[in-house]
Amino acid sequence: MTVRIEENRSHPHLPHLLGAYHLVNQAEKGVTVTTVAELPAVYRGEAEDPAAAFAADTVLLVTAPGDDAPSGCVVLKAPRDGRPPEIKRLWVAPEARRKGHAKALMAEALRRAAASGAPAVRLTVWGWREEPLALYRSLGFATVESWDERPDLVCLEKPLPAPDAIERLTPDAVRTHAPAGLAALLVDAVDGGASVGFLAPLETTDAASWWSGVAEEAAAGVRDVWAAHAPDGSLTGVVTLVRTGTANGRHRGEIARLLVHSSARGGGLGRRLLAAAEAHAAATGLRLLVLDTRTDSPAERLYRGAGWTAAGTIPDFAADPAGTLRPTTLYYKHVG
Fold this sequence. Notes:
By secondary structure, the protein is an alpha+beta fold. The chain contains 9 helices and 14 strands. Helix 6 (171-191) runs antiparallel to helix 7 (204-219).
């Protein structure tokens, strides 16, 4: 089982983690400090009230399966004065080390930095901290000119790839992409076990035919389509918004076929596609959005994290690609 990463600068266990970090950090610098109350004011403030100290930043915590409390944390500082975001306060409790927790925290921090559109992310580490330094270098960080002149402090930076561009597709663009890019996204989703209305194996021609029908819906104003393009022009994700045709339901729409290619997952693309559809829905007068997704699927974490509310679960609602009936959870979100 994988660890759980959550964002929560107000977690009741966070002060303990930050306090432990700062006490060890002071000891490594040769400063005798035994309690949080003895820390320098800026560090004491972080440990005593992290919600206030990091009000503008992203605080992530990692919890191992079966544990009640998180074992580590990291802070992704918001960009300031035109500088890249900075990773700070990476800490994993000694008893939880060498289990991949630090790497998981770093991966999520980097994912979020990339999803924000930042061109790079940076951090500092004391030169004597060989293990963290090795981790950072393994993740692609390189030494750069120092922006902090404290002795023995190493400044590192990692360039981030430009986020895939998201655009609303015209009906003609849907037709153009249907035989290849859009069909490939649908086949990839079904091959990966996603319950999106098809059984495996899904032939590319059948997937392309479905998207051709979507093009006609787009031309009729029934469905809007957004696609994400990688720098090389290939499609990496798609989402559609279906408008309700009944007179008493014109205030609502449905999010359908949110697909991110398996090679492009983990970078926040799904959230960006969802946000694009939500913003357009609100801007065009829709006030309520609904969707359904397989219960306990990874997509549920995305929707919950984006502010969607679970309305209920229906058992045996739809078959997965292998033909096994699975439960589905219905979600809704007010956008207008």
